[in-house]
């Protein structure tokens, strides 16, 4: 009897290990399916990367013509930003960019598109590593996602493999949304572009959160390994925030969680030491990466305020979402008279030119020459003017401004979310639809059969996902919600749906005595 028990225990252990390996295999498979869909969809492959043109011009200037990092040949910039090329596939422009002579034009020492230096770094690394190919941007983003997933699995083993599976499955589903098949949207949201890059932050954020929540004492070697993995995920997260600032709010959740843990364990010196060590790793990695980048970029990026992304410009032009703008805001058209540069003046709706009108009125009033006026667009002084204009408008017309932020903007969130999640498989070839079905099937099987984390951990994942979604909603009230700007929330809704499905399937499995999911139940 004793020998039979030992044999039975050994068989259970082998089966347990098999199910654990299945979780890793499913995570890898989800990544490969997403990669296959990413590179096979013609809408993704032929995207023009319209809003990334300035950063791409800087990258080509560096890779092809040896310009310093961040510097842009004016001839290349004019070529990439030519209105006639706005819908031209990026690969076509990259092929033709070799015909532009390096000596013509001048060498600009900053990018003035208001997107900051983050995507300049991404584009330069991508084209430098893989050559002047449009797919280089996709491959670089995919490599970061794959690296982040591998680090996540290495740190948290098979118990959280289903998080990786749901991550890539949600991304695959989004490839079949209007953000890809609708030309007016895909022009503004290139997969691998600035707006899409914010999704790279999801796994690093979860990694940092669960790493600081795991305060168990480990051996020195394991602790060192975990700190290295923590540093790598932090570096990826900081890079994403430099490209797209919206994940910065998620990083705020990490800081708040750390503070709560410090307060909770304030009388436990050992746990406080572990928390302090983790915070030092995160801080040093972030400061080090930003510091190196500050040293690498030309000084005008820092001096003139082009290192980061614009903020007040977006808030000011969002006032155009109020149907009463600008007529119902008094004499703003006279106050911000932009003739003769923009004769039509302030316009209803969401237009960058409304910010330009305010800047032109300020420049004319203060005698700023036209060349300097254009050269300082979206810079530090421009942002100061936008900030002052916003508070002036809010002080004079508080009712209209409050109604814009707390009535009209919130009303846009749900319709934009619904529109962004209209999956249409008829827009793509059958082989692409098969990849979507395979991704969904893989996620379904993973939710049933793969080993899971304790219930408390799974609840935390759902709680953090809801919190991230709420924070996204706040950013849409500060700025605005449209199908092209609501990308983060669309992803989080799909991800949360996967978590809910996993909970339902596990509940069904439990009703059948756990037969559908052997070895999946873990005690807290």
Observed structural traits:
1% strand; mainly alpha; 524 residues; disordered C terminus
Protein model, in words:
By secondary structure, this protein is mostly helical. Among the domains are: 50-123 and 126-130, no CATH class; 134-299 and 416-511, no CATH class. It contains 24 helices and 2 strands. Strands 1-2 form a two-stranded antiparallel sheet. Helix 12 (220-243) crosses helix 14 (269-296). The longest helix is centred in the N-terminal third of the chain and has 39 residues, at 2-40. The radius of gyration is 25 Å and the shape is globular.
- Percentage of residues in helical conformation: 55-70%
Q: What is the β-strand count?
A: 2
Shape: globular
Secondary structural class: mainly alpha
Please provide a brief summary of the model:
The protein is built from 24 helices and two strands.
Task: Furnish the topology, listing elements before pairings.
Blueprint: H1 2-40, H2 42-45, H3 53-65, E1 72-73, H4 74-80, H5 90-97, E2 107-108, H6 118-130, H7 135-156, H8 161-174, H9 178-181, H10 183-186, H11 202-213, H12 220-243, H13 248-264, H14 269-296, H15 299-303, H16 312-317, H17 332-335, H18 352-365, H19 370-375, H20 380-396, H21 398-420, H22 430-449, H23 455-478, H24 487-511
Antiparallel strand pairs: 1-2
Helix pairs in contact: 1-7, 1-8, 1-22, 3-6, 6-7, 6-12, 7-11, 7-12, 8-22, 8-24, 11-12, 11-13, 12-14, 18-20, 20-21, 21-23, 22-24, 23-24
């Amino acid at each position: 009897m004793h020998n039979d028990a030992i044999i039975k225990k050994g068989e259970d252990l082998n089966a347990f290990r098999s199910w654990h390996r299945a979780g890793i295999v499913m995570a890898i498979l989800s990544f490969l399916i997403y990669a296959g869909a990413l590179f096979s969809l013609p809408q993704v492959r032929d995207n023009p990367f319209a809003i990334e043109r300035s950063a791409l011009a800087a990258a080509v200037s560096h890779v092809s013509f040896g310009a310093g990092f961040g510097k842009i040949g004016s001839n290349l910039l004019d070529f990439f930003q030519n209105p006639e090329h706005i819908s031209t596939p990026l690969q076509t422009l990259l092929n033709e960019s070799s015909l532009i002579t390096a000596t013509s034009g001048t060498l600009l020492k900053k990018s003035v598109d208001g997107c900051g230096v983050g995507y300049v770094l991404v584009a330069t690394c991508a084209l430098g590593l893989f050559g002047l190919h449009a797919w280089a941007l996709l491959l670089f983003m995919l490599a970061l996602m794959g690296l982040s997933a591998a680090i996540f699995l290495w740190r948290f083993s098979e118990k959280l493999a289903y998080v990786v599976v749901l991550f890539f499955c949600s991304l695959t589903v989004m490839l079949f949304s209007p953000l890809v098949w609708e030309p007016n949207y895909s022009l503004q949201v290139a997969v691998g572009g600035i707006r899409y890059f914010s999704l790279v932050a999801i796994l690093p954020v979860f990694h940092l959160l669960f790493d600081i929540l795991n305060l168990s004492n480990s051996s020195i070697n394991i602790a060192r390994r975990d700190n290295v993995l923590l540093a790598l995920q932090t570096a990826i997260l900081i890079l994403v925030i430099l490209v797209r600032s919206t994940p910065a709010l998620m990083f705020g959740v990490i800081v708040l969680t750390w503070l709560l843990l410090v307060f909770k364990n304030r009388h436990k010196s050992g746990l406080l030491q572990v928390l302090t060590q983790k915070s030092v790793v995160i801080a040093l990695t972030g400061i080090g990466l930003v510091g190196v980048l500050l040293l690498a970029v030309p000084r005008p990026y820092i001096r003139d305020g082009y290192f980061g992304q614009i903020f007040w410009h977006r808030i000011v032009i969002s006032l155009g979402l109020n149907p009463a703008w600008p007529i119902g805001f008094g004499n703003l058209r006279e106050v911000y008279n932009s003739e003769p540069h923009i004769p039509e003046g302030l316009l209803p709706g969401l237009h960058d030119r409304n910010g330009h009108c305010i800047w032109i009125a300020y420049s004319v009033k203060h005698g700023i020459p036209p060349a300097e006026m254009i050269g300082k667009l979206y810079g530090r002084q421009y942002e100061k003017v936008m900030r002052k204009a916003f508070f002036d408008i809010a002080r004079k017309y508080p009712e209209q401004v409050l109604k814009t932020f707390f009535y009209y903007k919130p009303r846009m969130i749900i319709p934009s979310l619904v529109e962004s999640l209209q999956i249409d498989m008829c827009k793509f070839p059958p082989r692409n639809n098969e990849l979507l079905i395979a991704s969904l099937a893989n996620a379904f099987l993973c939710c049933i059969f793969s080993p899971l984390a304790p219930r408390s951990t799974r609840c935390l994942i759902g709680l953090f996902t809801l919190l991230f979604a709420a924070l996204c909603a706040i950013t849409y009230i500060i700025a605005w919600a449209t199908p092209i700007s609501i990308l983060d929330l669309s992803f989080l809704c799909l991800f949360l749906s996967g978590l809910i499905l996993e909970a339902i399937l596990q509940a069904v499995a439990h009703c059948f005595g756990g037969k559908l999911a052997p070895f999946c139940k873990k005690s807290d």
